[in-house]
Amino acid sequence: MERAAAAVVIDAQGRVTGWSQGARLLTGRAADEVVGRPVAELLAGEPPGGVLAAGSGTVTLRHREGHPVEVAVTVCRILGADGAPAGHVITAGRSPQSPVLVGEAFRQASVAMSVLDLEQRYLYVNANACRLMGTPEESLVGRLYADTAEDGEHARGFLRHLREVAETGRPVRYESFTAASAVPGAHALSIEMWPLRDGSGTPTAVALAAFDSSEQYWARRRLALLNEAATRIGTTLDVVRTAEELIELLVPQYADFATVDLLDWVLGAHEPPEAPGSATELRRVAHRSVVEGNRGAALQPGESEEYRPSTPPAVALREGRPVLAQAGEPAFDQWLADRDARSPEGRRHREGVHSMIAVPLRARGITLGAAVCVRKYHPDAYVPDDAVFAEELASRAAVCVDNARRFARERDTAHALQHSLLPSGLPGQAAVEVAHRYLPCGSLAGIGGDWFDVIPLSGSRVGLVVGDVVGHGIQSSATMGRLRTAVRTLADVDLPPDELLTHLDDLVSHLATGGTGEEAAELGATCLYAVYDPVSRRLSLAAAGHPAPAVLLPGGAAEFVPMSAGPPLGVGGLPFEATELQLPEGSVVALYTDGLVEDRDRDVDRATEELRRALGAPAGSLEALSDDVLKAVMPEQPTDDVALLLVRTRALGADRVATWDVPSDPAAVAAFRQAATERLTAWGLEEIAFVTELVVSELVTNAIRYGEPPVQLRLIRDGALICEVSDASSTSPHLRRAHAYDEGGRGLLLVAQLTQRWGSRQTGSGKTIWAQQSLPAG
Fold first, then answer.
1. Torsion of CA 513, 515, 517, 521, to 10 degrees
2. CB of 69 within 8 A of CB of 63?
3. Do 544 and 564 touch, CB atoms closer than 8 A?
4. pLDDT of 111-129, one tens digit each?
5. In what order do the strands lie in the sheet with 122-125?
6. DSSP symbol at 633
7. DSSP 8-state symbol, 367
8. Is residue 183 scored above 50 in pLDDT?
9. What whole-number percentage of the chain has pLDDT above 90?
10. Do residues 540 and 460 make contact, with C-beta atoms less than 8 angstroms apart?
11. What is the secondary structure of 388-433 as a DSSP string?
C-alpha cells in the first residue's frame, strides 16, 4: 500500500486526521505538517467537483517542493455511531495517464531523447540530449536542427533520417559515428526515430532516442579488422609486403601511425638463432601515417635501431606481451625523447602523441619483431581491450610473416640447389656452339625442376639434353639433380637416345615407388635427349613427353622436328622412338622446356608460331638470338620455369678425319701403324706419334684377334686426338690384370695408362673402342 498508493483520512469538515507513509512519499510532506489542516490546502487549484460523490476520480496535488502531482483517487465514506457521515478515507496513486509523470520519465531518461516538429525544429530535449550536444535546453528549443549542428556526415545523416520519418511516417533505426563536442572521444550512437501522431493518426512530430553503443561498435570494428586481416595479410609470401599489408590495415582505422620492425635474421634466408638472447636491435620494414609522407617517422625502411630496455617496444620483445603506454608515463616519455633525439626534424609532427601500444610479433614460439601503434589525432587512448585485440592481430600477422620467411628460405635453398646442379659454364665443343638461358618463374610456387645439359661424348660427338620435373620447390630441384646425374651416367656409356630414355624411365619408376615395388606415386617428368656427330653431321634424338625441338637450316626458315613425343618418364612399358636428321653445318637447333610456350593465359599454337618466327629472325650471335627468342615468346609474368638451349652445329671436314678399312690379317697391323704416323706428321703432331703407334697397334690387333670383320680404324683431330677401332662384334672389352705367366691381356691396360681416356660404345653394326690423347701444348 505504501509503495503503490497513499491513504488519507479526512473528517466531515474536510480536515486531515490521518496520513500514511505512502502519502508522505507521494507529496514529500510528513504527517505533522498535514494532520489538522484542510485537505484543500494540499490541492493544486480548485478541487474537482463530484469526486467525493462519485467515489473516484483524478486530482492534482501540490508537492512539498511546489510542482504538481497528478493522482488517481478512490474515496470511501466513513459513518459515525449514529450512522451519520463522519468523514472519508481517500487512497491515491500516481495516475497512469499523468502527463507530469510522463514528462518526468522523458526528462530523467538515461538516454538522449528529443522531440522535433515536422520542420525539424526542436520542441523538447531531455538532460542527456543536452549533455551529449553540449548545449543547454534554452539554446535548442524552437531552433531548427540544421542551425544547431555542425555540417558533417553525422549531421547530414541525422537530418536525412528526420525527413524520412516525417515524410513516410515510418520509424527508422540506424547507427552513426560522431565526435560529440561535449563528450570526450568519438562515440557510436544507435539512434531510433519514430513519428508522434494525433488522435486522428496524422504525424505531428518526430521523437528520437539515442543510445551510446560505442563499446559494441568498437567490439564489432575489432572483429571486422580481424576478419579483414585474414584476407588482406599474407597475400604475397613476401616478408616486406606482408608487413606493409599489416600497416595498411592498422592505419587509419586503428592507429594514426604504425610501424613494423623485424629482427635482422628474419629478413635473410636464415634459421632463428639457437639462443635468442636479449637483443633489441630491430630493422624498420614498413611504416604508415595519416599524415602524408610519414613525416613523424624517426626511422626509414631499411634503417635499424637498438631500443632502450625500458621503452615499450623493448619490453614487449623481452616479455612477449603487448605493452600500453600513455603520455606522462616514464617509459612513454623516454620512447618519445629517443624519437626526437634521432629525428629532430620530425619533432613537431610528434607533438600531441598521447597513447601507444607495442606488441611483439611471435609465431610458432619464435619472436620475429614488434609492431607499434600510436595515436595522436584519435582522441581515445588505448585501453586493455585494445591490447587483447592487438595481440590477436599481431599473432595472425606474425604467422604470415613467418610463412613468408620460411618460403623465402626454401626458395633460396631450392634456387641454390638448382643453380649448383645446372651447368654454370659449358666446356668448349668442336661439335657445336652453345648458348643457354634459364629463367626461374616468378610464381609463389617457387623454383621448378627444369634443367639442361651439354655432355661431351666419344668421337667428338656431343649429347644435348633438356628436361622438366613436374612441381616446384626443393623436392623438384632434388629430383631434377638425380635425373641429370642419371642422364650423364647413361650418356657416358654411349647409349643411343631411345635406349637412354628407356633406362631413365626405369629409374623414375623406381624413384616413384621409393624402391618398395609398391604402386607408384605420381612423379611427372619429361626429357629430350639428342646426340650430334660432327663427322657424320647426323642428329639422333628421342623424347619422353617433351616438346619437339625446332631446327633452323642455313638460309631457311625454322621448322619443328616431326617426331614422336613419347610417354612421360615413369609411365613404363611403352617404347621410345628415335629420330635421325642430317644437318648441314651451321644449322641451329633449339631445345626448350614447355614453360617457354605453355601458359594458362596463352594459346600454345600461337606461342610455338612466335617461337618459330623468332628463331628465323636475324641475330648477330647465338647469344643475341637467345635473348631475342625470350623477348618475343615469354609472357610478362611467366608461371613456370624456362630452360632454353640453342646449339649451332659444326662439322669436322676430311682434313681432320682419317679412316682406313683394316683386313682381318695380323700382318697388316704394321702398315696401319705407319699410316697413322704419316697422318700425325701431316697434322703436325709428331710429338705424340710414338704413343699413337702403340695405341693403334693394340686396338687393331685386338679387333682382328677377338672381333669380327669388317674392322675400321679412324683418327679424329679435334680438341684432342681420338683413335677409334670398330668391328662387327658386340662383345665389349674390359681391363684385367695379367698374371706373370699369361701371354696376353696387357694391351688395354697399356692403352689406359698411355692415354687420357678410353672406352667402348655399341653401334648398330657392332662396337667401337676409342682412346683419347691430349694434344701437345702450343
1. 0
2. yes
3. no
4. 999 999 999 999 999 998 9
5. 122-125, 112-117, 203-212, 187-197, 172-178
6. H
7. E
8. no
9. 41
10. no
11. HHHHHHHHHHHHHHHHHHHHHHHHHHHHHHHHHHS-SSPPP-SSEE
